[in-house]
Amino acid sequence: MKVDIWSDVRCPFCYIGKRKFEIALEKFEHKDQIEVEWHSFELDPNTVTKPEVNPVDYLAQIKGQPREWAVEMNQRITATAAEVGVHFNLESSVVANSFNAHRLIQLAKSNGLDNEIEEKLFVDYFTAGKNIDDKEVLIEAGISVGLERLAIEMMLNSDSFTDEVRLDQKIAQQIGIQGVPFFVFDQKLAVSGAQPPETFLGVMEQAWVK
Are 43 and 11 in contact (CB under 8 A)? Predict the structure, then answer.
């Protein structure tokens, strides 16, 4: 059974949802027969990479809220992540466009390494406070999951895998995805958001017998 997941590496609930799905998958009787494919979805394609900008101030600005609201929001998200064993350092995150990260994910996917690169980029962005639009950061991430430096450099210095990113986003639009994470199970059932592991498990069981 195939599970298609639309995600953005700048989305905290995508990382939390990934972990909740994995918790459910471990309990699924047929887990060894599950194929997972990650798909690109840019939450804000117009984001400009600004490493010098404070991420808390940025969140408050784009949401039109006071800074105190942004601080509280980050605290709540961090606590939610901790419940599933994920450590966030949101106050250290770098404001960055995710398009090149998505191209790297597509390159990794062409080598069967999309799950590995998703995890690495999530850690880089949410835990390590790295700039996911920086070429050296992306090269290091790719190498760490088994990609060759030359292949990553060639991709970053061209428009390679742009079409693949755009296609994923076009499909998302066609099937009505408005937010991520979004999970499609065997092209039969869908789950939107970082739902509890029990929800993911129940949907997998339903999709398996349909």
Answer: yes
